[in-house]
Design brief:
Helices cover 7% and strands 64% of the residues. The chain has 335 residues and is mostly beta strands.
């Protein structure tokens, strides 16, 4: 048997020594830092005359570049194990524990990669993300600066396709997770919106929302529903997010939802182009300037430039009103 000890090996040079397929997985992330390892080469060989190689390694401090969001993550530490049999044909690459920080955000977890007539990747990632970092990426039109915290864990599993980018592979991976949100705020069409608390459940390309409190200026709404196509949308494979569900409000003031227009606003779209929704609602009291109504029910649908309200019913002026309505936004003249 042979035992080797490696101290402070440059990770960039190390990737040149790894199996080609493993190097192809790692290289897009441009790893930096130093590598410490103890390597054991077994005297016994397998049927193909290859020895078993086991390397226990540590990276005390390093950095990675995340291509999907064009961001470098520093202060990374990890430890794990590489087991190679049959030369480079079969290996497992285990990161038993890793941790990384960027500003007020942090990521930790474990990753398992197996090569055996194909590459299988599994990971469990714990996230605490400050949404300030997303302000440089315009994901949804007509929103202002984001702030707040998302905290939780996400797991994924995939069979890596070398014909696709990392982002594309993650889109089609099996995903599951639970996240909590707190203190999220942003402006939409100059209206302040906040999500004080809530929880999210991730199932592949769907996010379930069991309970969410939404504040729009003075109005409080409570929402239950789901968001579809979230990962394909973020990867540019889907043009829209689809939101469906039901919200309730004890009191809703329309002044909180409608931003007065000005002459300079006539060149801007009000309805977001990349969100489609179908949401039922129940409002106990509605205020609209001097008009008030009670027990309002119906369904709101938004698709591109058309907003429709179906199955509308309400009590007002001593009677009951029912029907439907729609609003169409004219195309913006960009000349």
């Amino acid at each position: 048997d042979i035992n080797l000890h490696i101290q402070n090996l440059d990770i960039e040079k190390l990737t040149e020594l790894l199996p080609v397929r493993l190097t192809a997985l790692i290289s897009p992330f441009r790893p930096q830092g130093t590598f410490i390892a103890t390597i054991h080469i077994s005297e016994r060989c397998d049927a193909d005359n290859f020895p078993k190689i086991v390397a226990d390694f540590q990276v005390p401090k390093g950095s990675l570049f995340i291509p999907a969001i064009k961001t470098e993550v520093s202060d990374i530490s990890m430890h794990g194990k590489i087991i190679s049999t049959s030369g480079i044909k079969k290996y497992t690459f285990e990161i038993n524990s890793f941790e990384a920080r960027s500003g007020e955000s942090s990521v930790s977890g474990k990753i398992f990669i197996k090569e055996n007539n194909g590459t299988t990747i599994k990971a469990l990632v714990n996230i605490k993300a400050n949404l300030d970092a997303l302000n440089e990426i315009k994901l949804i039109s007509n929103y202002g600066p984001l702030k707040g915290i998302i905290d939780g864990s996400v797991g994924f599993a995939l069979n890596y396709d070398r014909e696709k980018t990392w982002k594309e592979n993650l889109v089609f991976a099996k995903k599951s997770g639970n996240l909590k949100i707190s203190g999220i705020e942003c402006t939409v069409n100059k209206t302040l919106c906040s999500l004080p608390t809530g929880s999210l459940q991730i199932i592949n390309d769907r996010i379930l929302i069991p309970d969410l409190e939404l504040k729009i200026n003075r109005s409080n709404l409570f929402f239950t529903g789901r968001v579809d196509h979230w990962s394909t949308f973020l990867a540019g494979k889907s043009k829209k997010l689809f939101l469906s569900g039901k919200f309730q409000a004890n009191e809703l003031n329309t002044e909180d939802l409608i931003t007065p227009s000005s002459e300079s606003d006539t060149t801007k779209k009000i309805f977001p182009e990349n969100i489609e929704l179908e949401v039922g609602y129940v409002i106990k009291n509605l205020l609209w300037n001097n008009f008030s109504a009670q027990n309002i029910k119906g369904t709101i649908c938004l698709d591109q430039n058309r907003l429709s309200v179906n199955n509308l019913s309400m009590q007002t002026l001593g009677g009951k009103i029912s029907g439907k309505m729609f609003m169409v936004e004219n195309p913006v003249d960009k000349t």
